[in-house]
Amino acid sequence: MSFLQVQDITHTYFSLKEKTAALENISFEAEKGEFVSFLGPSGCGKTTLLSIIAGIISPTAGRVLIDSRTPDEKDLHIGYMLQQDYLFPWKTIEENVLIGLQISKKLTPESKKSALDLLAKLGLYQVETKYPKELSGGMRQRASLARTLAVDPDILLLDEPFSALDYQTKLNLEDLVFNTLKTYQKTAVLVTHDIGEAIAMSDRILLFSKQPGTIHKTFTVPESLKGMTPFDARQEPEFQVLFQTIWKELNHLEQHQTKS
C-alpha cells in the first residue's frame, strides 16, 4: 500500500451567489520517500489540494490517507512550508525552532538537541539567540525548515517555499531541501509554478488543468536526473528535453483554456 493515497478528491467552493468547482476526481499515490510536484495554470486547485492533504480543508468528496491514516489523526505529523517563513518575530530562532515540540509536548533534552543540531546541518551557525529580523530571507527559510523537521513529520508539504527569494538563494535552498529530504527519507509534495524547479526536485510531476482542476498528465523524471542535486540536474540535456516537453504542454493547456 502506498504511503500517500489521494482518492477521488472533488472540492467545490460555495458562496451565497454561486458555487465553484475547484477540483474534480483527483487520484494519485506516492511511495515513502517520493517527491511529487503539482504544476499547472493559476487557479487549477494546486494549493487547495495541498490544503486537503494537510487536513486544513475537508474535501467535498473523496479521501486522503497518509500511512493508512487520515490527515486529522492526532498521531500523524504533517510538515507545511509556505512562501512566507511565518517565524514569530518576538521569539529567538531557538524558540521558533522548538515551538512545534513544545506544542506537541515532545520537548525533551534529547529532542531539543536534535532540533538545534538541525540548524547547523542546514548551514545556520550561532543563530539561536538571534531574532528573525536579524536574518536574511534565505536564512529565515532555513530556520523555518528546521522548525518543520524538528517534529519529525511523516510528510512534508511545500507551497512555493522559494518563490519570494532571489534566484541564487533559491537554487541553494533547492539543493539543501532536496538533500535533507533524501537524508531523512521524507515523502514530499511541492506546489510550484516553476517548471525547472519541479523537474530538478521531483520524482514525478502532476500537470493540472483547471475549471475544475484535474490531473491532465503525469511526467516521470528520468532516473539519471533523480540522483542528482537540483543544481546539477539543470545542466543535463535530459533536463532541457523534459523542460521543453512540459512547457509546450502547459502552454497549450493555458491557451486552450483561455479560448474556452
What does this structure look like?
- This protein has 260 residues and is α/β, with parallel strands linked by helices.
- The chain has a domain at 77-153.
- Helices cover 40% and strands 23% of the residues.
- It has nine helices and nine strands.
- It has helices at 46-54, 93-103, 109-121, 137-150, 167-184, 195-201, 223-226, 230-233, 237-259; strands spanning 4-14, 19-30, 35-39, 61-66, 78-81, 155-159, 187-191, 204-209, 214-220.
- The longest helix has 23 residues, at 237-259.
- It is globular, with a radius of gyration of 19 Å.
- 37% of the residues are buried.
Index terms:
260 residues; alpha/beta; six-stranded mixed β-sheet; three-stranded antiparallel β-sheet; 9 helices; globular
SSE inventory with pairings:
Blueprint lengths: L3 E11 L4 E12 L4 E5 L6 H9 L6 E6 L11 E4 L11 H11 L5 H13 L15 H14 L4 E5 L7 H18 L2 E5 L3 H7 L2 E6 L4 E7 L2 H4 L3 H4 L3 H23 L1
What is the typical, i.e. mean, pLDDT? 90
Low-confidence parts: none
* Secondary-structure element order, N to C: EEEHEEHHHEHEHEEHHH
The description of the largest β-sheet is: 6 strands, mixed
How many strand elements?
A: 9
Strand order of the largest sheet: 5-6-7-3-8-9
Shape: globular
Compute the separation of the termini in Å.
39 Å
Described by its quaternary structure, the protein is single chain
Percent of residues in helical segments? Answer: 25-40%
Rg over CA atoms, rounded to whole Å, is: 19 Å
- Percent strand equals 15-25%
Computed structural class = alpha/beta
Helix segment count?
A: 9
